[in-house]
Amino acid sequence: MQADPATLARQARLWGQKWRWYERNPMPWNRARIHWEFLRRDAFVRWPVHGNVLEMLREGRLEIGRHVLLEPGVWLTAPGRARITIGEGCVLNLGVMVAAMERVEIGAHCMFANGCFVTDADHRFDDPSRPVPWQGFTTKGPTRVGDNVWCGANVVITSGVSVGERCVIGANSVVVESLPAFSVAAGVPARVLRRIEYA
Amino acid sequence: MSTTPRLTTVPTARPPGVAHDAPPPERLPVTLPQLAEHKRLGEPIAMVTAYDYPSAQVAEAAGVDVVLVGDSGAMTVLGYDSTVPVSVEEMLVLASAVRRGCRTPLLVADLPFGSYEASDELAVATAQRFIKESGADAVKLEGGGTMVARARAIVGAGIPVMGHVGLTPQTATALGGYRAQGRTATRALEVARDAIDLQRAGCFAIVFEAVPAAVCDTLMTRMEIPVIGIGAGGSTDGQVLVFHDLLGIYNGISPRFAKRYAELKAAMVAGVEEYVAEVRSRAFPAPEHTYSIDPGELAEFRGLLEQS
């Protein structure tokens, strides 16, 4: 059955709204602006990049250090007043997501393998009268990753966690508690397996 | 449970129906990393002094990056002959008022003469008072040499420090008056050493005051922290001017670098003169400036007054 014109117009308007919002990064002008912002920071982003990258850069809420490389499919998101810092020389590999509600700091020269997820936010689910997606977010505090941290593929670092410098985190680990510097950690939840000793 | 289709109510400039996307923020508070980023991206930093609630609100509304509660307030608002006599308590009053007037700009408070030079302990204690009692974000102190150690001590205590070299008004007498500094090779080298030492001590930014533009230009290649110039040419990472100088409120000796963007003192005098004239000619107050009373109440009041 064909929907009446009024309904169809409403649906089309809504679809247009969504398209303009969700597909804004690939618009040629926005794509050029994003590359320009990375260029002037001596950094590089491989396409596509997702999230409100341009807004954050322009509002001074996303700090990208020199020689940062974002591989395709990286998703950086920080609504409102939230801030993300990515230190110099970091490499975010395919499909890494960084989501900040207040503050996510990544130190210098970190490596994130494919599919990592770093966030300071949790979904709320404490209101039984409302759908969970409508309940918004909560946080246990800023998430910090020190310098020279290497995260294997699909590592998840959750809210309020500090990872010390030069930690190595095994693939598919979920870090829910802070890790002291120079730790090798892995598992769900991630446990410190050993300490890195330098000769 | 609400069944309202939330997506339809969202304006186009915002993400449709994305619950976690808060309304667009007013300007974010300026942070130290942001100032460093401004330097890196070659975006000039605008800094201005402020000494009270209204001037702070003006700075906020004008989109200033850094507000300095300068000890220049000793002269411009407290009427001293120099910046030397002003006390910590007086500066705290000014800094607290400024803090109440602005949230967005980074707020830097000047440590007044005699409040930090004697020892590291004194410097840290005074800096802590400004952070705790006035809500300033950072402090500024003048000079190099032994002051580098003071700066390092305050930074070590977790308080961001802004350095200040070249013409340092607190010690102007020792420098031979309010005059440009670093105009000979050896004096320029002293300025350079002080600046680099302060940078090594961990200052987050530094003010170059009344230094020849060419000297400043040469020094810029060595400076990794943002350099804010006042009478130091156009190669610095930012500029600072005294509020009362740039608006033409202060009538003292105006240095060469103080460009006037307005003549507020003339406007203020004209305003008060007109008021005085209107009072004397009874043109003020007019009916719209007065309160009325119901005629019945007035008659009753007059009656009551007669009886009493």
Task: Give the key terms.
heterodimer; A: 199 residues; alpha/beta; 8-stranded mixed beta sheet; 6-stranded parallel beta sheet; 3 helices; 29% strand; globular; B: 308 residues; TIM Barrel; 2 domains; 8-stranded parallel beta barrel; 12 helices; 40% helix; elongated; disordered N terminus
Structural class of chain A: alpha/beta
How many strands, what sense, and barrel or not for the largest sheet of chain A? 8 strands, mixed
CATH topology of the largest domain in chain B: TIM Barrel
Please work out how many helical segments of chain B DSSP would assign.
12
Radius of gyration of chain A: 19 Å
Largest interface, C-beta closer than 8 angstroms, per-chain residues: A-B, 29 and 26 residues
**Regions of chain B with pLDDT < 50 over 5+ consecutive residues?**
1-25
How many strands of chain A?
Answer: 21
Strand content of chain A: 25-35%
Q: What fraction, in percent, of the residue positions of chain A are helical? A: 10-25%
Amino- and carboxy-terminal Cα gap of chain B: 68 Å
Topology:
The complex is a heterodimer of chains A (199) and B (308).
Chain A: H1 5-22, H2 28-39, E1 44-45, E2 49-50, H3 53-58, E3 62-64, E4 69-70, E5 74-77, E6 83-86, E7 91-92, E8 97-99, E9 103-106, E10 111-112, E11 117-119, E12 122-123, E13 137-138, E14 143-145, E15 150-151, E16 156-157, E17 162-163, E18 168-169, E19 174-175, E20 183-186, E21 191-195
Chain B: H1 32-41, E1 45-49, H2 53-61, E2 66-69, H3 73-76, H4 88-101, E3 106-110, H5 120-134, E4 138-140, H6 147-156, E5 161-166, H7 172-175, H8 185-200, E6 205-209, H9 213-220, E7 227-230, E8 238-241, H10 243-246, H11 264-280, H12 295-307
Parallel strand pairs in B: 1-2, 1-8, 2-3, 3-4, 4-5, 5-6, 6-7, 7-8
Helix pairs in contact in B: 2-4, 4-5, 5-6
